[in-house]
Amino acid sequence: MPYINVKVAGKLKKSQKEEIAKGMCDVLKKVAGKEKDTVYIVFDEVERENWAVGDELLA
Predict the structure, then answer these.
(1) Which of 18, 20, 21, 48 could be stapled to 58 by a disulfide with Cβ–Cβ 3.0 to 4.6 Å?
(2) Which residues pair with 44 in a beta bridge?
(3) ∠ CA 41-47-53, rounded to 5°
């Protein structure tokens, strides 16, 4: 049961999440032989003001 946690700064559209999920499932099938119905994917959309690179906030 693969578990993938995708963290992104800002919001994604539903269609973007669907495309990302499909791509990840395709790679896991091709590389590891995992069926898509065994893959769990969680999207964490973090507000840019709550994410920093070094000492610089993304917002």
Answers:
(1) 48
(2) 7
(3) 95
